[in-house]
Design goal:
single chain, 268 residues, alpha+beta, Beta Polymerase, domain 2, 4-stranded mixed β-sheet
């Protein structure tokens, strides 16, 4: 298995490869001809810049799942968690009907109580830009439609809303995602990891370097109780700062008449 970025092909981490192959084999055994495609995205497609905390996926289905198939898939996920600790329990994704995956509307999963992929536009842009692992199925460009700026903006604002609601629950995640949100609104480039956006923010926003470093330290599993307290003390200030930067970016975009995302697919 490989993921592709531009003209480059890079082997993914051995641990992810083993989990991915077992996941694919289990899906084929459980779903047979219903299985159209299996695609990983997210941190596994940026392995050169950050540790992998979970494995994001889309499973594309020809037809709706039966209750028996849902039960078999739950068993598959339980088996992967036992066979590949700890990352095997961190498969986090959506089982989507093919007809829904071909639409711009955020689709509803066939599993997990019908969860909706509210970041659908962002995930499509990452996958179409080559930040994906193809475990099974056709080229994703044959399935996923390109995203336009209005739906990208809606997905970004949804992520901002999540940050606002969970500032004090996950301060490290919120700091890094605010970096990514500011970067994406200012550049119209959404194909970027939190780690890459943090590098940009570290250079562009020197006043916040200390807290960016604390968030990165936390993500690397090296956080102390004092580090968390320091992040919590400043997280609301960073949120206000980010909201003002995002508002300014939106005003500038509206003034220039820009309506489409300038998504770039080159390495950074």
């Amino acid at each position: 298995m490989i993921y592709t970025v531009g003209v480059n092909s890079v082997n993914i981490a051995k641990e992810v490869r083993n989990i991915g192959e077992a996941f694919r084999d289990g899906l084929q055994a459980s779903l047979g001809s219903k299985l159209v495609g299996v695609y990983l995205y997210g941190a596994v497609a940026f392995p050169e810049v950050a540790p992998i905390g979970d494995i994001d996926f889309h499973v594309i289905l020809q037809e709706a799942l039966t209750e028996g198939e849902r039960s078999a898939l739950k068993g598959l996920h339980e088996s992967l968690a036992q066979r590949f600790p700890p990352l095997g329990s961190e498969l986090d994704g959506y089982y989507l009907l093919l007809e829904d995956a071909r639409k711009e509307t955020p689709p509803r999963s066939q599993m997990w109580n019908g969860a909706i992929d509210h970041s659908w536009a962002l995930h499509r842009e990452h996958i179409r830009a080559g930040r994906r692992v193809i475990l099974y199925g056709p080229d994703p460009d044959e399935i996923y439609p390109p995203a336009k700026w209005p739906e990208i903006e809606s997905a970004l604002l949804g992520e901002l809303d999540f940050v606002e609601k969970h500032l004090h629950d996950y301060p490290d995640y919120c700091i890094l995602n605010l970096c990514r949100l500011m970067y994406s609104f200012e550049t119209s480039d959404v194909v970027v990891s939190k780690a890459m956006a943090a590098e940009w923010a570290y250079s562009a926003l020197p006043a916040w370097r200390r807290y960016i470093d604390l968030a990165r330290k936390s993500y690397a599993g090296q956080r102390t109780a004092q580090d968390r307290e320091l992040m919590l003390n400043e997280i609301e200030g960073l949120l206000k700062f980010a909201q003002e930067r995002i508002d300014a970016s939106n005003q500038a975009r509206q003034g220039s008449g820009e309506v489409e995302a300038r998504t770039r697919t080159t390495d950074r």
